[in-house]
Write a structure and sequence with these properties.
The chain is of the alpha/beta class and 245 residues long. The chain has a domain of 170 residues: Rossmann fold (3-Layer(aba) Sandwich). The chain contains eight helices and eleven strands. Strands 3-2-1-4-5-11-10 form a seven-stranded mixed sheet, with helices on both faces. Strands 6-7 form a two-stranded antiparallel ribbon. Strand 4, helix 5 and strand 5 form a beta-alpha-beta unit. The longest helix has 19 residues. The N and C termini lie far apart (38 Å). The mean pLDDT is 92.
Length: 245
């Protein structure tokens, strides 16, 4: 099953969980990744923003409320349908992050929240994002923390602990499993080390100007106490702020 097909299956349940403030999707998105990523943006009033991998339009909705002009794209037709209702003032299309159908230098800001880890190669996506950004434009990307995604649970007698395994192994894909209606649905992701990520940014003309390890908001402590405690010890996501040189 392709990433697009998988998210077509997951889209409605994912969106409803977030809107009803329930489950791990709400925790990861609203209390962990989204706040850290938006923190890097700053003032967006009047800015033209492209949301790559826009999902159900939650970023677009937030950015429009802050005065931005937003276009969004996603490979999932189900997500695009939801996004059009969530953020009707934005312009959404079904599209591929590796083939951006926009004009050169069209946007002040491009965001790609938790998108690039679905691509084995980032080359075409980064080239396209660089092209559609204005000179000096900002690119915000959130991503699985390269160390945390290689964290493996271990058990020794009655003790449970974690270790980092295979950090330098970038040749194999790994799976994130979603549970829907008692069925396990796989999403394929690709690992890259910090060094590889940084070198790719430099290769395609970006300057790193800020960075955030995604830390859960304080209100998560009461709602998700176990996850809150866990993610204070290791961040599952990170966010980067880049500038087109």
């Amino acid at each position: 099953m392709s990433t697009a097909d998988t998210y077509d299956v997951l889209a409605k349940g994912y969106y409803e969980a977030i809107k009803h403030k329930q489950g791990i999707s709400y925790f990861h998105h609203c209390l962990l990744e989204l706040p850290s990523t938006l923190k890097l943006l700053g003032n967006v009033n009047g800015k033209k923003i492209l949301d790559v991998g826009c999902g159900p339009g939650l970023y677009a909705s937030s950015l429009i409320k802050k005065g931005a002009v937003v276009k969004g794209m996603d490979i999932s037709k189900e997500f695009i349908g939801i996004a059009k209702k969530e953020a009707p003032a934005a312009e959404f299309i079904i599209g591929d992050a590796e083939k951006l159908p926009y004009k050169n230098s069209e946007f002040d800001i491009v965001i790609a929240p938790l998108v690039l880890h679905y691509l084995n190669s980032w080359d075409e996506a980064l080239k396209g994002i660089y092209a559609v950004l204005k000179r000096g434009g900002i690119f915000i990307i959130s991503h699985c923390n390269p160390l945390s995604e290689k964290r493996k649970g271990k058990k020794w007698f009655f003790k449970k602990f974690s270790v980092i395994e295979g950090y330098f192994d970038e040749d194999t894909k790994y799976f994130l499993w979603w549970i829907r209606k008692n069925k396990k649905i796989p999403l394929v992701r690709y690992h890259k080390t910090y060094a590889t990520i940084i070198k790719l940014f430099i290769k395609y003309g970006f300057e790193i100007i800020d960075y955030e390890d995604c830390k859960p908001l304080p209100e998560a402590k009461e709602l998700f106490p176990t996850k809150y405690k866990t993610y204070l010890n290791y961040p599952p996501f990170c966010a980067w702020k880049l500038r087109k040189i």
